[in-house]
Backbone:
């Protein structure tokens, strides 16, 4: 019952991985993609995306981090993977899912799904280039405009020697539009022996159970659902183990978000403000307090003013009792969707 934290460019950086994995329930993370062209990238580029490589390739709570490469040239992917391998990563993931026009125009991401043979060539080149002890995984969508070649793509990835496959159950044309077509993954799951993880549109434990049941996969990858509800993986793990689960109140959650923001202070002067607004934008769908705080910081730009507003809001929440408001579904609601 593996749970993976999804890679999200511009959102899930090393500091975020540190925070989210500290909450429990995750077995693995994947970095934001590193774009590979013809160049041999220096080690410092990989270390920038995955500073965890200097700490044994794991987050501070010990969760392995796979470094993700994106590119369309098998040879270039192979020699860059070799460089990554020297840094002893927990694993290398290959991105065949990015829908961005810019990325697709430069021969990377989901556009490669139109060429199943090239997907094979890339996976094989990387697999052959690095020591077998380093897992090589692939992340795909159902296809580019439709899912017609899904079985062929998955087959090619399996025979090229990938250790695992994650399928975001939408095509590139679907972008991020709901729903995710979890059921289309079931035939792949039946046909291939490599472990497959299901991804897309999992916002709650109920969704995770449905996605597992409908796709036949035991592993799930969680993306935006974790931004809205940071304890989602921990709640899923507690459910799987039949253990109790306690959700933070807003105050508990806000203090962790503040720790995250503080840990990014060495970045660009607008970084903290940008990330705070971005994350509150996800959280407000579940926590009304996040909406209120978002409103209070939306015009602020500098880290110190944003953090001061966070502190003021926390102090007020404490005295008004607002922080103790519990949100979200009652745990017993999950019993209804047991697979
Ligand atoms: C802002 C953003 C950035 C993303 N960056 C990456 C990335 O760097 N690599 C990747 O493989 N997928 C990336 N994805 C896709 C996610 O990993 C995931 O497949 C997608 O969000 C669907 O899962 P979800 O519905 O649980 O969010 C990104 C998605 C979003 C929304």
Residues:
């Amino acid at each position: 019952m593996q749970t993976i934290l999804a890679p999200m460019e511009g959102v899930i950086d090393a500091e975020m991985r540190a925070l989210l994995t500290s909450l429990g329930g995750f077995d693995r993370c994947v970095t934001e993609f590193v774009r590979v062209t013809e160049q041999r990238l220096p080690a410092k580029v990989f270390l920038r995306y995955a500073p965890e490589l200097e700490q044994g390739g794991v987050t501070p709570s010990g969760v392995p981090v796979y470094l993700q490469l994106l590119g369309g040239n098998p040879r270039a992917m192979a020699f860059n993977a070799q460089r990554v391998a020297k840094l002893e990563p927990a694993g290398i993931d290959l991105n065949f899912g990015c829908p961005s026009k810019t990325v697709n125009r430069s021969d990377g991401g989901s556009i490669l799904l139109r060429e199943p043979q090239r997907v094979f060539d890339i996976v094989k080149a990387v697999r052959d280039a690095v020591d077998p002890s380093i897992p090589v995984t692939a992340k795909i969508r159902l296809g580019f405009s439709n899912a017609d070649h899904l079985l062929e793509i998955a087959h090619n990835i399996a025979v090229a020697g990938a250790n695992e496959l994650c399928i975001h159950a939408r095509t590139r044309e679907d972008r991020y539009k709901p729903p995710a077509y979890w059921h289309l993954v079931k035939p792949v799951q039946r046909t291939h022996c490599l472990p497959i993880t299901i991804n897309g549109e999992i916002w709650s434990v109920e969704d995770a159970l449905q996605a597992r049941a409908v796709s036949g996969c035991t592993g799930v990858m969680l993306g935006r659902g974790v931004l809205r509800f940071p304890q989602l993986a921990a709640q899923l793990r507690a459910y799987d183990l039949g253990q109790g689960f306690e959700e933070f109140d807003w105050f508990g959650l806000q203090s962790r978000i503040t720790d995250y923001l503080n840990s990014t202070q060495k970045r660009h002067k607008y970084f903290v403000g940008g990330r705070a607004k971005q994350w509150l934008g996800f959280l407000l769908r579940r926590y009304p307090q996040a909406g209120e705080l978002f409103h209070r910081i939306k015009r602020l730009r500098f880290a110190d003013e944003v953090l001061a507003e966070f502190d003021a809001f926390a102090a007020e929440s404490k005295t008004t009792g607002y922080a103790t408001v519990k949100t979200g579904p009652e745990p017993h609601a999950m019993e209804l969707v047991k697979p």
Notes: Residues 324-339 have pLDDT under 50 and may be disordered. Residues 21 and 36 are 27 Å apart (CA to CA).
